[in-house]
Design goal:
Length: about 210
Amino acid sequence: MSKPIPLDEQIVAALTSACTSAAAAAVLEDAERLLTDLTKQADAADVASLSPLATSTEARTLRREAEDRRFDADRMEASVSALSARVSELEGEERSAARDAARIAAIAERDALASEIAEEYPRIVFALTSLAKRIAENDELCRLNSITESAEAIGRGVPTNFYVGGTCTLHRIGDMKVGMPTSGHMAWDADGTGGWRWPGLTLARSERPAASDG
């Protein structure tokens, strides 16, 4: 069984060696407890040295004991002060390290998501554009053939008029605003002449976006 490390050696180690704030705080707690005990012992020896029931020899012995305890208490008070500063320093370093670790983790998560967006978003835009174009073309085909129920309404399982409960209007796929990956253009929009533009179809399913989208 290993011997317990004396408190003065623990204090030196906490002040000069690498350790956690929790470890330093534990040493500080022990030092504060000993400081309280030493102060009480010094006060008790002071009082006892003044007792008329003590002989001169006993009084001088008690006075020296009080002085020794007071000296020990003064040294321990200096240690407590130094340990308090050390704990604060270590806590600051640990907070800074935690912030740095959190920032590194956030950057790693951001970069992973950015890679996923670069890989998936052009495909999503292409798929949505293709779907919106097919819906628009099929809606026109149904209109020309007096067919009232659209493929979109059937596929989504909603009323033909896209009303739910008679008051809530559902947004249609063609009404979505889907931005192109690297430009300010929409993946599809009206061309101003009653027709549509479909820039999103320029994105092949397996390709990343070009530097500029039409």
